[in-house]
Specification:
Strand content: 15-25%
Number of helices: 11
Largest sheet: 7 strands, parallel
Helix content: 40-55%
Radius of gyration: 19 Å
Shape: globular
Order of helices and strands: EHEEHEHHEHEEHEEEHEEHEEHHH
Number of strands: 14
Amino acid sequence: MILITGAGGMIGSHLIDRLSCLVGKDNIIASYYKPTIDMKEIEGKAIFVETDVRYFEDLYRIVERYRPNFIYHLAAQSFPALSWDRPQETLETNVIGTANLFEAIKLIRAKDFYDPTVVVACSSAAYGYVSEQEVPIKEDHALLPLHPYGVSKAAQDLLTYQYWATYGIKGIRARIFNTTGPRKTGDVCSDLTFRAVQIEKGSIPPMLRAGNTKSRRAILDVRDLVSALILLAQRGMPGEAYNISAQKAYGVDEIIEIIEKELNASFDVQIDSTLLRPKDEPIILGDSSKLILATGWRPKHDLAATVRDMLQYWRQKLQAGLDSNKLKPVLAH
């Protein structure tokens, strides 16, 4: 049995897609709360349970009832920009939610043999500022986050280690770098591809808004991330941290060039001050060699393929006649 928390998010939904094919829908428990995706897209692929991980009793009941052998803990307030406005909610969801999960496992273990593997979706945001000379970032780099989201992810990361070191709960820390793909909202690729499709359909003028165009990010396809998470559950070492990163960093201008090439079009680009963060990392690029050595993982999708699939996803959503205002991604470059 497998438990996925945060099943209503982009990563969780793609993990359900993959695992439902591998183990069958009746072997997947998917908890969700305030989904950021259209849940109809994964309907019938798991046993769904609405759960707010901030409430211990609800989470405890799920773990106690199903006793999952593998747990993918993805539930989070996952937008860094939003964390500036809602730091308490971010910390409660990401830190308290993680502690609640490990406490539930600990209490069940105390009365009965129960020894699950827990893959925790940590984040490169925990590293904070990294100079050009320090990239690609290795797992032994200091955790010095720059925003409340990064702080919450650093705490989540350390909690996972602490419950392994103290109680022997098999937590594996998956330090996820920038990831995108179909169903994603709240990042530069989702915003730009969505607007590009609106332009393609003539709904808005040929202008794209962008935030910090000087920052560069390694951007991984969500399907490659899902492969890494599954491999870590099978082959990762408890207590260890593993970077999961694409191997090339892109600037916003390069992403726009890829979109323009895919659409055979050109766009006017304007800087939008509302998309700028109070503090931002100049480059985020991880060293995934530890993950590769442990699991044999290799990414299979380049950014052009990812962008192509995201454009097609937005075309389908708009073609379905859905209200474009409801589809609009959260702007969080």
